[in-house]
Amino acid sequence: MKKILLIATGGTIASLPSAKGLKPELSPNGLLEFVPEIQKYCQAEAVQAYNIDSTNLTPEHWLTLASLIKENYGKYDGFVICHGTDTMAYTAAMLSYMIQNSKKPIVLTGSQQPISKEDTDGRVNLRDSFLYASSDKAADVCIVFQGKIIAGTRAKKIRTKSFNAFDSVDFPVLGRIRDGRIISYIKTPKDRETEFYLSLNRKVGLLTLTPGMDGQILNEYFRHYDAVVLSGYGTGGVPESEYYGFYEILESWKGKGKTLAVTTQVYHEGSDMNVYKVGRNLKSRFELLESYSMTCESIITKLMWILAQTQDEQEIKRLFYKNINYDQIG
User: Which residues are catalytic?
Assistant: First the structure.
């Protein structure tokens, strides 16, 4: 029988009502009491990494999770992380970079309603996560939610209240869980060496363009961050007019060790900066990283991982375009 470690971090699934709204209160063993049926297919143990609303997540929490999994990696066959849904996609992406090619499943899950409520989605999600973590088919970092098995770098929260809260962006789900049965669509390889990385660079910022914004905001972003992710319009268009002054700002930061990545505000189909002049001009004039189909969560966390490993421009580029847990497709 597989031995699975539940890592509790708080979130809605562990919350109880309070005078000021839902607040994480349940202990890890308290969560396990709601899914006694998992004893049929695994031996579960539990630990509390921290107990927060995931809105309060910081990079230090990612380091705590990665370190905890590394410390216990030889003792367990898989891991289930109970996590708040609001930043779960960021954590799934970050762990995909901090723990690469894991032969053992690292499954994130949570719920839209506390597990103690009668109409909760928490019990099904937690049960399915243990089922998947106990499977010989499972590997690497993923999210299991509402029957979907989603690669850790492809997930995005798309609904604030509905149970079907997560989707896999521009990539098929790895599989589904129906009536206690795992239906696998994509087989995750287990033939590569597992790698742990326990450092990251927090100085990565996202700037979303809006019509009429003060272009000097970009200048301030470069002052504060080592990498700036510029979220443009459509296929990755960035204004080239004097009104914004972006080109002059980017010119002034050339050769100063800063990294620029360009993505799109559109969820599906990714960027293609060569389609329009407003994308092609920028890409031809400046050294930048184009996100293509990557999710915003993956771009930000991947740069945090990369910049903790190297400051070399060519190595940054190589690592950014390296396919990790399905983050680069097409």
Answer: 12
